[in-house]
């Protein structure tokens, strides 16, 4: 019911504004005795941190995370979760509220300025307040904890399209993802993107992007039917990220053009012992989910991020008093928010899967992470 | 938490299997004193009912709905809701379980057969049991009740792509939608689709489709920030429909290729009295939602439905015992499940919006449906 | 959020009115492969069924339950749950709406007549509509399913006080409970109660009662801290039963008068193998719950039921139009609703524990029912 | 689902341990534009603060609260809520973990030591960790915010029994409550309690107590039927407070001994304009709640707090390794935790009512706080 909380058994509640003193989150439902330290969380925050290249906002935030509850040393001196809520805090350091005085009463097109005013009768205009992408830092922090809950699942995100320029999937290289400022798996495309985005940035403009997130190691059986479908949870998770306007699972929107023979993933004997008796799928159009439940294949999802709405070109708008104005957004902005959405997408995938794992364990009684699929023939 | 329930304040819980005696739903949180009769619900069920053309399954279900609780006559003799849960029941009439004996132990590719077995250790193989699209009848019934809660909002769905064939938006006609068996708003495309789908059907194959649902009359301010975003709720709602693999709001996946100047919707003075002081938007790339909150424009969403997985061409698979088999699905199936997904998509839009309306009223204190947007300048 | 639903992972949603055609419930989250048949449910409904002695209402309801979803035959032909929602229906047979015409506009003191009108602007006056104790039939049915989920836990309720007459605990006999019309464990008291309640009944009056419910076999560790405390869940469950005004765990309200030395339950070595290493408690003032979590001892709870508000003596009241009237309730009523609250209390205990078991399994990873307590010394 | 969250539309999530660096809470769903400052919250924290008399723990905690999100200055310079989550933080100052070394492995009788170990496989032994009454500081802080949401409702708590000594209700004085260290409304009893508790304290013992909380100004119609009953919410809220073992509404457990003529509250014409047409009740045995919905009378609830389990007398117990030990608790403890439970009980009442108000507004459409009851005769 709460709109600042995501998840059911693994529940993340975030708080804090872009220009407030502190942002934070409370993770409720994290199982006990999971080793957890601040550096483990920090490494993911560092991937999302602004100011790391000229292609992201120049706001300087160290994003140093502190664990203030839910963790203590066990008998061996290892810091582990206790089952109590894990609260994480990050102090804001580089907020400059004076940058925003002139948009105090003006509705920036593409932003949530007008809608917050329409809903609440006021809004925190300082850096976007609660609607700022600053909130996603806490998603990344919570996602780092979620990864520990499902430690055997590997999650990686990548940017597969920047503006109109898609990658060539034949050139996909996992190693390349961390070697360019775009999380781009195609080294050739990354070079072209650099030229393109430099040009966009210099114009004071912005562009959209598509992020793909893949999770490997999810056993068959996670998720649930109907309104608790794993893909419905993912759709909600990704669509809740700032600026996202579309979500796809597996073949996504392209399934419309397919026929039955090409869409369904055929199966063969899975090879017995090595995969716990699960069948081997001969393709993965379904993106690893059938009927809302994981198949044991890789979970594959994508989401589209719209261009940053803060641009230098003046745009027509109105202010709070109904007067017509032109709005031109200065300040420090990402020319493509899709880039930093990559670690955010990974985090939401981790949170959805950690929650699905705990729900499955509660409702059906599955074993520990890594629990193999096994059936006894009838 | 429940995976058979959708919604928060307006909550729909469904039950029943494809070949069980009865399917039903419980609608909790429906406000009191709303006129409600069975024929009002029946009209929407009739839109979804199978067997109305050769392009949908030939199963003959009258889908006659009964209201068994939550409604009584008021002082004037009008049947109205009482605030108690509204329970709706539909008896299954034309279920032929014997059709399914041969798939009892076989996993049909593209279906949820394997995943249900993996999760639960057994599955109801009779017509797909709970994973059957039969459940969507109750969504449509509940959606009819939701429409009464937000009576001033107009919701209409249409099929905008069938297989590889998209409509021409220049030819859009609302009137056309009800004049062909496809809910197609482009009369010219409808003719071509008939030829195409006849051919697909005769081959024993199937095809995908894209459904678009539009809601007009939603005032600014519905929805919520962050994890309660109106678009996140819609994404979850649509992705929970059988066979859906992608969801888009406004420009959807295409935003990736846009630049900031083209994506953001500019605003001008809205003309004062007539729209309660809300600005006029000069375009609607956002699909009527910014920051998760409605802008007052039309809410526009689309979802892609994969081809029916039940086809005549034999497909490679395995059975419950790990043996390799070929599966060929006979029985009565829709060659394109996307067609009957149109009224289902409308219903989910109605349920999401009724819930958003009640949540907004609870958390912010908005007035009755139709509540105009108004601000007092600071 | 829903006020017609109880539970989190094991969720029960009820619907239907006293004089409607059908009452029912949907049980969501019931684990799969649990054997379940209608007679198993019916036996508990028969304990609650009206008209079994002169001390309960003479309404004749067979309360024949039907399972309409969520159950099918497994490989061996046993009917088991499938993981899908279990829906149960009971048709009302003996409703006489004409009995209630004269209270249509009058507020009966002690009933929810005025408050429903105040909240909803109308109410279903026929037999109390939704506020009738008829709804508790579905609690008992759902409780029967919950018992199957935690099959190793033994739950029994008893009436320990009727009007001003408490039992003598020295004479407690489990066997006696089923041998008198009061669920009274003290055979001597049962005789005295018969005389007392006959006299009350003949006067057209009514009396209150105290119900005690005990659960044995709950392992240490169920429940949760803070707002998910097992005793908080029980308090909510029991207080939600019609006419309940007080709830106690263990020593209950009497703890106020105790001192620290007498209240805390001391522990000794538990005897090793037989109880999985858990300590033996030397007393049970805590009622089997410490910090909201089960200790492994018997869970002991009590609740007080107020006298039936429907009595023959005229009482001062007002009607819907603000006019002063005298109300005298004829019709068929229980002289002590506390009696039939015994199986209802048992059912709510079962539902709370089944939910606690699933939540524990999800959040901490406990084993199957019967899971022994075990620690590895640090 | 979360066990660190209370409420539905007005949701409070707490975190932090007794001896951690910081405790805090996140209040989600607080309506916008409500004036809110730190001193308004601080005044209630000061009522609960330890070390204010010799009858509470000597731990010195200033409990200085900081609002870190959800509040900003409006046009007039007033600090108001924005609709975003209100996060409150309190730094722990006077935690002495070394006090607790010797109970690290020992299970203190009456405490949650054994049960946390049984559930989680470890526990935070430092000052009770999460199970410490320290958490109730955040309840009081959140309750202060809740009071602002329902500003027209007056809530006051009092201690009505200390150990075996009950107050004389004939001597009740609201003014007296703040004039003694017990929140005792009977000045005569307060003197006797001082003598009694001094004696208990010097013995190193402790005693129980009964707290009564009354809310005036709640209009008819708040709360909901069935599982959302206002009294069920209160029962859960109070039972979730540390050491509480019983909860009563109105006449509470005593209703068992009543007969129908004495229990039901009769009604007369309410005097028209002044109370919006609601009837006048001639008594209040129901504690202001019928059928789970408020009657417009005062809401009256009580709860019993057990004696502090930390006492000087050695008690028999076991340690984590199964060895039998004697436990004697030194350190700083309240001889009667019931005293400081008074502001905590008030806070929980405020939270339950703020939530009920928002839920009512969402589901039925009630007006702003103070909304009068009104009916149009049929």
TrEMBL record, chains A, B, C, D:
Pathway: Metabolic intermediate biosynthesis; chorismate biosynthesis; chorismate from D-erythrose 4-phosphate and phosphoenolpyruvate: step 7/7. Its cofactor is FMNH2. GO terms for molecular function: chorismate synthase activity. Keywords: Amino-acid biosynthesis, Aromatic amino acid biosynthesis, FAD, Flavoprotein, FMN, Lyase, NADP. Reduced FMN (FMNH(2)). The keyword Magnesium does not apply. NADP(+) binds at residues 48, 54. This is Chorismate synthase.
């Amino acid at each position: 019911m709460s709109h600042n909380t995501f998840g059911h058994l693994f529940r993340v509640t975030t708080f804090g504004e872009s220009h407030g003193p502190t942002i934070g989150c409370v993770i409720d439902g994290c199982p006990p005795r999971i080793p957890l330290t601040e550096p483990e969380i920090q490494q993911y925050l560092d991937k999302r941190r602004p100011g790391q290249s000229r292609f992201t906002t120049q706001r300087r935030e160290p994003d140093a995370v502190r664990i203030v509850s839910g963790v203590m040393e066990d008998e061996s001196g290892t810091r582990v979760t206790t089952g109590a809520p894990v609260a994480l805090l990050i102090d804001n350091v580089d907020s400059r509220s004076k940058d925003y005085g002139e948009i105090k009463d003006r509705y920036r097109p593409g932003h949530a300025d007008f809608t917050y005013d329409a809903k609440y009768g006021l809004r925190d205009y300082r850096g976007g307040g609660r609607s700022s992408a600053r909130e996603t830092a806490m998603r990344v922090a919570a996602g780092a904890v979620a990864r520990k809950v499902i430690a055997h699942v590997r999650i990686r995100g990548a940017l597969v399209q920047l503006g109109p320029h898609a990658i060539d999937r034949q050139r996909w290289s996992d190693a390349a993802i961390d070697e360019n400022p775009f999380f781009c798996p195609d080294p050739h495309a990354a070079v072209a993107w650099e030229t393109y985005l430099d040009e966009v940035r210099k114009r004071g403009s912005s562009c959209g992007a598509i992020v793909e997130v893949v999770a490997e190691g999810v056993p068959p059986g996670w998720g649930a039917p109907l309104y608790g479908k794993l893909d419905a949870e993912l759709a909600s998770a990704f669509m809740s990220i700032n600026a996202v306007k579309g979500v796809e699972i597996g073949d996504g929107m392209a399934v419309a053009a397919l026929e039955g023979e090409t869409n369904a993933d055929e199966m063969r004997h899975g090879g017995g012992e090595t995969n716990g008796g699960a069948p081997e799928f001969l393709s993965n159009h379904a993106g690893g989910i059938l009927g809302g439940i994981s198949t044991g294949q890789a979970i594959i999802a994508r989401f589209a991020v719209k261009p940053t709405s803060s641009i230098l070109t003046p745009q027509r708008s109105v202010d709070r008093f109904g007067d017509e104005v032109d709005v031109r957004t200065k300040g420090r902005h990402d020319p493509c928010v899709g880039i930093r959405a990559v670690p955010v997408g990974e985090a939401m995938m981790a949170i959805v899967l950690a929650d699905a794992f705990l729900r499955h364990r509660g409702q059906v009684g599955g074993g520990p992470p890594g629990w193999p699929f096994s059936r006894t023939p009838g």
